[in-house]
Amino acid sequence: MKLLLALAAALTLIVAVSSAMLRLSLGGAGCTPWPACYETRADHAVQTSLTPEQVPGWHRGVRLAHRVTASLAGLLFLMATLFGWRRWSYSERCAALVLLAVSVGLALLGRYTPSPLPVVVQANLLGGHLLLAALGWMLVRPRLANHSSATTSAWLPAMVVLLMVLVLAQAAIGGLVSARSAAAACQDGNCPLFPSDAAGAFDSMRSNASLPPSMHAPQRQAVLQLHTVSGALTVVVALVVAWGARRSLPGPAMALATVAVSGPLLGWLMRSGPMPLAITVLHSLLAAVLLALATGLCRRLRRA
Q: Looking at the whole model, is its pTM more than 0.70?
């Protein structure tokens, strides 16, 4: 059963990577000439009306791989649930139901993707994150009832839950950055921490057509700055969690700290110049990996 879940997790990662490649490349990541090409995508309506000549040739193969792996992953979710339901604990059954419900929801959402509404991008991102989190929960075993907790701080489980909430919030804001074409909003060097006149920036049901087309519009700057601040808070909490788990769970603690720090470093590289597609995709994927690690750590801290 664990092998089946591990295979499902690998397929889910492929789905997440292929989805990010399609979404971010259509949004202008890796385009040339930079940054003029990115600014033309500031109006999200452009992304949903590209001519066949404007769509990269590799999209067809990646889109096919995305559909095939998503279908296989959904089939594995169903198989694992059917064969493992009786032996699973209550929390594992809840995680399995999350897998099934989210996978069906994402399949239905695919009919409306791409969309001019940021909420669709956010729902796709959060859905992928939740799938990896549920798989992380099911793959990790809780500690034994007689396991010594002398090296585990009493506050650690609560901090791990806080970290999971922050990562989900950060992913939602990151989806808004992507949908608003705001990743390069501060590359002119004149970006206030709290931009004024940012009305409508955080309304996920409002398309970019109602916003100023400039890449450096206050609305886009506000979204990007919020993403930066929330990212910094997420890193601080992740490092506190890693420090608290360093003795009882040194391996997961090190992995958690490494992933948490890597995300902002990639974000800084993206803000300081052109955004290569590979770096942008990795930056998006690290949030999902961080949530899966935090979920696994939360599971490990529970008693059987």
A: yes
